[in-house]
Input
Amino acid sequence: MKKTILTCGLYLLSAFGLAAQTAETIPFLALMESKNEVPAVPENHSGNVIIWVHTIRDAQGAITSGSVDFDVATRFANAVTVTGLHIHNGPAGVNAGIVVPTDVNATTNSIAIDATGRLRIQKQVQFPASNVTIATITDMIANPQAYYVNIHTTTNGGGAMRGQLMRAEATVLMGLMSTANEVPPVNATGSAISSVMLLRALDASGGVALATALFNLDYTGVAAGTTFTGFHIHNGVAGINGGVIINTGLSGTNTLAADPSGAGNINIPVYMSPLDVSFPAEVGTVNGLFTTPQNHYINIHTTQFGGGIMRDQMRPTEQVNFKVNLSPANEVPPIAGLTASGVTQVPVFVARNPDGTAAAAAVLFDVNYRGFPAPTTITGLHVHRGAVDANGAIVLPSGVDANANKVVSDTGNGNIFKLANVTTAAGLTAVNDLLANPNAFYENLHTTVNGGGAMRSQLTPVLAKATVGGVANNASTITTVAPGAVISIYGTNLSPVFSGLDGFAAGLTALPQGLNGVSVTIGGVKAPVYFVSGNQINVQVPFSVAAGSQPVVVTTSSGASTAFNVTVAAAAPSIFVIDSAGTGAVVNNADFSLITAANRAKAGDTIVIYSTGLGQTTPAVDTGTLVVPPSGGFNNTGTVTVTIGGVNAPIVYSIASPGFAGLYQTAVTVPSGLTGSSAPLILRSGTTASNTVNLAIQ
Output
């Protein structure tokens, strides 16, 4: 008797703090090969490409300007001189005109590549420009396969290799690497924070066609004279050593000496395209890192510790995104006479501890700066702690500085796109404080002319005190709730940001009792949290709340809301719905397929109904705990009945759903004699009836 759950109805994303102009970055991948040229080039050239399209959109969502980043890793068969790097608007097998050119050319800006044939070429192009139109960028985003990236050489002036663009999806994973995590643990010093931004492009059948992993590791405390000899992602759960699957290329013959201070950064892109069809574990690992990252670990090796000096399982992260517009007018004091702007997004990627606090974090600085006098040198980009009218200390640096990491713009326009790990305890404290009260933090961009800051913005407006306007279950507004039920709290200013459970590692055993400084009490008892957002919070009603009228209170960094009273009763059943037509969250027990008009239930089928509000079980479950059934049994609900089309449906079982808190599943047999294409389904706990949902029947 299989037990599972549909996660419908638990999350509702609400918009928060959208600015008049917003930033968006869209990644594309391409595999350039000489055989793709028209006609084909006989040499065996290839190259991997990441195209980042950074757009600025107006209040209506239309693209107004932006930048295109080319990131190309070449594998030429011999030494060459590159004379062109462009995007063309043509499908595979067709030569077409250049629509996004870089400044690489044969006369003034060629690039010599030695006999290894390998070089990383990074270029940025601004739009709109005389040769790059908004219409081109808009169409390229909508129809990437109609565009190809092409690289030209003195030998192959019409193109040495090319590849069609493919829209990519990304995930950011993190690791808290330590010597104690090695198997067996090693007697060495050192620790590291690692992040991996993984990009994959899927083909028409949903298979992985192209993939790239961007490794970023900050290490500290390693012994003097350490030499790194390997940096990989392996297959293997915690406590198990597994094979290398994604290899950065560090090896015994391609070593990297650690910084003499014992602390430093390693930043390596890994291109897994073309995918090795003789190595299916590579594709499996790429997909696994998106779905089950805990089954893979990141490991770095040294000459002394060839099996690995420190490692950690890959951890999923939650993305909390802040959209802000930097302005010189926001500086303290304001910068007069500077008309620059910075339409910006600041995604913070958080891997969480079981209590909801940040265990690790990385900040993506994605700034579209416009209107600086040309040329301009950017010497700093940071998040500071400080109020809107005060200058504060840097707490989250991007790594941009006045030395080797400065950013020089010949035009005064451009984009900075940089992922920075949070590497200190103070930085992690700042992340936790920022998630609770982002208005107390601002992003600041500095230049040589304005060293103290050229433009800035608080991450959000001031959050007013929360107001609770109502309580609902998945079906409708309610006034009665049951202990253990999942409910939605609606209102305003309920949270400064949206956060759910995405950043929690596998093996989470209980819901947190708050997220980002937001907590909820019902009858004075803290309620476990599923997610928080500006207008909605989903929580589980504590089992210990007394019956009768009880206050619901939301507390944020701005203080506690006024109370909103609900009535607590022993049971308040509610069936989950999956659409506005009232279709119930009901599956066929045979294969756990959702019952819809295209997959109807018939007499004699065993179906499983997903609900909440059925109260305490036998044996009892704890508030917030993800249900683990007792050995050889289940956590059974009290007596329930079900009618379909007014006819009693025999109960097979009714239990708390394993692996979840506040979810129940009730299995029944569809009775005979039903007519029509749809029948109303009602679940009752004792005499208390649920909402009515529609069940497709045949």
Observations:
- The two ends are 24 Å apart (CA to CA).
- The chain is about 5% helix and 45% strand.
- The mean pLDDT is 95.
